[in-house]
Amino acid sequence: MVRRSVYPEYDEGIPWFMVGQKFQRIIECPLDEEYFHFWFHPELGHYTWSHARDGRQIVGVGFPAGGDIDVYHKRVETYLHEKHGVRLEPPDDREGCAHNFGPSVINRYVFGKGNVLITGQAAGFFNVLAEGMSCALHSGAIAGESVIDAIHRNRPVQEVYRRHTVSEVNRCTDQWNIFKIIFVNPHEADFKAALRKLGIGKQAAVLKDLAKFLPIYGRFNWGRQILSQSLRRAITGKYSKDRWL
Ligand SMILES: Cc1cc2nc3c(=O)[nH]c(=O)nc-3n(C[C@H](O)[C@H](O)[C@H](O)COP(=O)(O)OP(=O)(O)OC[C@H]3O[C@@H](n4cnc5c(N)ncnc54)[C@H](O)[C@@H]3O)c2cc1C
Fold first, then answer.
1. Is residue 120 lining ligand 1, measured as CB closer than 6 Å?
2. Is the C-beta atom of 131 inside 6 A of ligand 1?
3. Cα–Cα distance measured from residue 74 to residue 90, given in angstroms and rounded to the nearest whole number
4. Does residue 89 form part of some domain?
5. Quick check: is 226 in a domain?
6. Residue nearest to atom 12 of ligand 1 (CA)
7. Domain for residue 134, yes or no?
8. 3-state class of 126 per DSSP?
9. Which helix (H) or strand (E) holds 53?
C-alpha cells in the first residue's frame, strides 16, 4: 500500500506471481527431511518446492498471478506421489500471497521517495531461492541506520539510504548475476559443487532439465537485462543506480 501510494503506476509495470504452500500430515515420505527440495520442472510451475516442518510436509508452488493454486498444488502432489512415492494426508493448513520476483533479478529496486523509505520485499529484495527474510531484515536495519545518519549529517534520507543499501543490492542481485553464478559462488547453496558430485550422465540430465525449465521465464524478458547488469557489474564493479525508483 505504501509503495503504491508513492508510485501508483509501479505495480502494473512488473510481472506478479502467486506463491502458496500447503501443510500436509505425512503418511509416507522418502524425501530427506534435512533438505529443502526444489524442482526445475516446467510443467509443475515457476517455483516448486517441498520440505518437512514439525511433522508435516510443506508442498509449495509459485506461478504467474491469475493461476489457480489448487490446480498447481494437486499437480505437484501427484508428481511427488508418482515420482518419489510421497503419500500425504489432505492439507490441513495453507498460506500464500502475491510475490514480486523480478526487481532483484534485474536490479529494478524501489527505495521510495522523499522521507518514505521502502525496505524488504516491497523494495524488491529477494534472494535466489526466493528467500526474502534475510534481505528484509538487512534492508530494514540499513533504513534505520540511514535515518540516524541523515539526521547526524543533515543530509536527505533518500540519498543516505540509497548509498548504504548498495551492499544489500550487491549481495542480492549478485545471486542472479550470470558471471557470478558461473565464476564464483554468490549463494551458500553450492549448486556447482553438488553437480560435480554426480556422474557425467546425471550431470547432463540435470543441465538438460535446467535448459527445459528456464524458457518458462522467457516471457518476462529478464535475460537481456540480467546480462547487461552482469556486464556492468563486471566492468564497473557496481549495478546501475539509475534503474532504481
Ligand atoms: C509461502 C511462502 C514461503 C516463503 N518461504 C520463505 C523461506 O523459507 N525463507 C525466506 O527467507 N523467505 C520466504 N518467503 C518470503 C518471505 O516470507 C518474504 O520475502 C519476507 O517475509 C518479506 O518480509 P517483509 O518484511 O519485506 O514483508 P512482509 O513479511 O510482507 O511484511 C510486511 C508487513 O506489512 C504489513 N502491512 C502492509 N501494508 C500495511 C499498512 N498500510 N499498514 C500497516 N502494515 C502494513 C503486512 O501486513 C505485513 O505484516 C516465503 C514467502 C511465502 C509467501
1. yes
2. yes
3. 10
4. yes
5. no
6. 131
7. no
8. coil
9. strand 47-53
| CATH number (domain holding residue 63) | 3.30.9.10
Tell me the residue type at 83. Answer: K
Q: Can you name the residues that pair with 21 across neighbouring β-strands?
A: 60, 95
Per residue of the chain (245 residues), what is the pLDDT tens digit?
Answer: 899 999 999 988 899 999 999 999 999 999 999 999 999 999 999 999 999 999 999 999 999 999 999 999 999 999 999 999 999 999 999 999 889 888 999 999 999 999 999 999 999 999 887 789 999 999 999 999 999 999 999 999 999 999 999 999 999 999 999 888 888 888 888 888 888 999 999 999 999 998 999 889 888 889 889 999 999 999 999 999 999 99
Domain containing residue 87 = 17-99
End of a domain among 72, 99, 126?
99
Whether residue 93 lies inside any domain: the answer is yes
Tens digit of pLDDT for each residue in 97-120? 889 888 999 999 999 999 999 999
Say yes or no: CB of residue 133 within 6 Å of ligand 1: yes
* Domain count for the chain: 2
| Count of C-beta atoms within a 10 Å radius of residue 237 | 8
Q: What angle do CA 71, 77, 78 make, to 5 degrees?
A: 90
Domain boundary among 83, 99, 115: 99
